[in-house]
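Lab notebook page, bench 4
Experiment: in silico fold of construct C2
Operator: M.H.
Input chain length: 247 residues
Purpose: comparison with the prior construct
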Amino acid sequence: MSALRIQVINPNTSLAMTETIGAAARSAAAPGTEILAVCPDDGVPSIEGHFDEAIATIGVLEQIHAGRQQGVDGHVIACFGDPGLLAARELAQGPVIGIAEAAMHMATLVATRFSVVTTLPRTLIIARHLLHQYGFHDRCAGLHAIDLPVLALEDGSGLAQEKVRARCLQALREDGCGAIVLGCGGMADLAQALTRELQVPVIDGVSAAVKMVESLVALGLSTSKHGDLAFPEAKAVSGKFQMFNSF
């Protein structure tokens, strides 16, 4: 049996964040699983709103297309907004897991209620939309923002990391939650240390998504091609999107 290959897509263009995400994915992966951590060449350096997500979705789909050509077994979308998730599932053959959906699922398996700690306050609204979309709204005890941009996680100052820790402590004090979900792919390297310090499950969606892809592939389960997640209808796609004519 050939080694499992999982493509982990950072939908923004930050190479430093892609390295952080890739390292977390490799740390979580089973021995023999190969992690291909990638990001688009074009797009936005961070994803902090609906506009950013719309641009990032094209980059995600381009990477899904490239991953299929490389023969990967599954894909992870490593942004907490899960940009382009359903479109990516249409395009992909193997399973595609978004880190928000993965983290929320995992949290409900280890606690009755969880809180989310993310970056900018405006992204709390996007997280709330996802909670409703995925059916976890009643399981979420609270939403917290560190009020710093995504790229502050990569500036080397440590301020963002300390604010994440402080918001996690606040959530435990105020929310009555049993687990905490980290609401940004750039926080992927913080979960294990916070779990040890706080003595509650602190869940990174990158690691959770990697384990979900491994499990689905091991069970022989892939994205359904019956119904709305069937491959896109064949049609001539023009201009810079012509690559999708040959998926």
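Observations: The beta strands are 5-9, 34-38, 74-77, 96-98, 114-118, 140-145, 179-182, 202-204. Helices lie at 15-28, 50-70, 85-91, 99-110, 122-134, 159-174, 191-198, 205-218.
Next step: discuss at group meeting.
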